[in-house]
Design brief:
Layout (H helix, E strand, L loop, with lengths): L1 E5 L10 E4 L10 H4 L3 E2 L7 H7 L6 H13 L2 H13 L2 E5 L8 H11 L2
Parallel strand pairs: 1-4, 2-3, 2-4
Protein backbone atom coordinates (compact mmCIF):
# COMPACT_ATOMS: atom_id res chain seq x y z
CA UNK A 1 0.00 0.00 0.00
CA UNK A 2 1.14 3.52 -0.82
CA UNK A 3 0.01 6.53 1.20
CA UNK A 4 0.84 10.21 1.15
CA UNK A 5 1.31 12.44 4.16
CA UNK A 6 2.44 15.95 4.86
CA UNK A 7 5.80 15.74 6.62
CA UNK A 8 4.60 18.19 9.28
CA UNK A 9 1.97 15.69 10.46
CA UNK A 10 3.10 13.48 13.35
CA UNK A 11 4.58 10.05 12.72
CA UNK A 12 2.25 7.10 13.37
CA UNK A 13 2.95 3.36 13.39
CA UNK A 14 0.76 2.77 10.34
CA UNK A 15 3.02 5.01 8.24
CA UNK A 16 5.27 2.04 7.56
CA UNK A 17 8.33 2.91 5.47
CA UNK A 18 8.49 6.72 5.24
CA UNK A 19 10.12 8.27 2.17
CA UNK A 20 10.66 12.00 1.69
CA UNK A 21 9.97 12.75 -1.98
CA UNK A 22 10.73 16.48 -2.11
CA UNK A 23 13.84 17.90 -3.76
CA UNK A 24 14.15 20.68 -1.16
CA UNK A 25 14.41 20.11 2.59
CA UNK A 26 11.13 21.01 4.35
CA UNK A 27 11.31 24.39 6.07
CA UNK A 28 11.59 24.20 9.85
CA UNK A 29 11.81 20.40 9.91
CA UNK A 30 14.54 18.46 11.72
CA UNK A 31 15.62 14.95 10.75
CA UNK A 32 14.52 13.72 14.17
CA UNK A 33 11.01 15.11 13.75
CA UNK A 34 10.75 13.94 10.13
CA UNK A 35 11.37 10.29 11.03
CA UNK A 36 11.86 9.10 7.46
CA UNK A 37 13.85 6.11 6.24
CA UNK A 38 14.90 7.50 2.85
CA UNK A 39 15.10 10.82 1.04
CA UNK A 40 14.64 10.35 -2.70
CA UNK A 41 15.41 13.83 -4.01
CA UNK A 42 15.80 12.59 -7.56
CA UNK A 43 12.24 11.28 -7.77
CA UNK A 44 10.89 14.78 -7.10
CA UNK A 45 9.94 17.00 -10.03
CA UNK A 46 12.83 18.78 -11.69
CA UNK A 47 13.59 22.27 -10.42
CA UNK A 48 12.32 23.69 -13.70
CA UNK A 49 8.99 21.83 -13.46
CA UNK A 50 8.55 22.70 -9.79
CA UNK A 51 9.11 26.41 -10.45
CA UNK A 52 6.86 26.38 -13.53
CA UNK A 53 4.01 24.71 -11.61
CA UNK A 54 4.18 26.95 -8.55
CA UNK A 55 1.13 25.07 -7.15
CA UNK A 56 -1.12 26.97 -9.57
CA UNK A 57 -4.43 25.05 -9.65
CA UNK A 58 -4.87 25.89 -13.34
CA UNK A 59 -1.66 23.98 -14.14
CA UNK A 60 -2.51 20.77 -12.27
CA UNK A 61 -3.30 18.59 -15.27
CA UNK A 62 -0.28 19.76 -17.24
CA UNK A 63 1.97 19.39 -14.18
CA UNK A 64 0.88 15.78 -13.75
CA UNK A 65 1.46 15.05 -17.44
CA UNK A 66 4.96 16.59 -17.38
CA UNK A 67 5.87 14.94 -14.08
CA UNK A 68 4.77 11.52 -15.35
CA UNK A 69 7.09 12.03 -18.31
CA UNK A 70 9.97 12.73 -15.91
CA UNK A 71 9.06 9.69 -13.81
CA UNK A 72 9.18 7.40 -16.83
CA UNK A 73 12.86 8.30 -17.14
CA UNK A 74 13.46 7.33 -13.48
CA UNK A 75 12.50 3.67 -13.68
CA UNK A 76 15.08 2.61 -11.11
CA UNK A 77 13.55 4.87 -8.47
CA UNK A 78 9.93 4.06 -9.29
CA UNK A 79 10.75 0.34 -9.31
CA UNK A 80 12.40 0.74 -5.91
CA UNK A 81 9.25 2.32 -4.45
CA UNK A 82 7.00 -0.33 -6.02
CA UNK A 83 9.21 -3.02 -4.52
CA UNK A 84 8.95 -1.46 -1.07
CA UNK A 85 5.17 -1.19 -1.40
CA UNK A 86 4.92 -4.92 -2.16
CA UNK A 87 6.55 -5.61 1.22
CA UNK A 88 4.36 -3.26 3.26
CA UNK A 89 3.04 0.25 3.64
CA UNK A 90 5.04 3.07 2.11
CA UNK A 91 4.24 6.67 3.02
CA UNK A 92 5.38 9.33 0.57
CA UNK A 93 6.20 12.48 2.54
CA UNK A 94 5.85 15.97 1.09
CA UNK A 95 5.93 19.51 2.46
CA UNK A 96 3.50 21.32 0.13
CA UNK A 97 0.45 22.96 1.70
CA UNK A 98 -1.84 21.70 -1.07
CA UNK A 99 -2.82 18.21 0.06
CA UNK A 100 -4.77 17.38 -3.10
CA UNK A 101 -2.19 18.16 -5.77
CA UNK A 102 1.48 17.92 -5.06
CA UNK A 103 4.32 15.75 -6.26
CA UNK A 104 3.65 12.98 -3.71
CA UNK A 105 0.00 12.64 -4.77
CA UNK A 106 1.03 12.59 -8.44
CA UNK A 107 3.81 10.08 -7.70
CA UNK A 108 1.37 7.81 -5.88
CA UNK A 109 -0.98 7.92 -8.89
CA UNK A 110 1.92 7.11 -11.21
CA UNK A 111 3.07 4.16 -9.09
CA UNK A 112 -0.45 2.75 -8.79
CA UNK A 113 -1.14 3.22 -12.50
CA UNK A 114 1.41 0.57 -13.31
CA UNK A 115 3.75 2.44 -15.66
Amino acid sequence: MIKTKRIYEPWTRDDGYRVLVDRIWPRGMTKEKARFREWLKDIAPSTELRKWFGHDPRKRAEFKKRYFKELKARKDLTAHLKSLAKKGTVTLLYSAKDEEMNNAVALKAFLEKGD
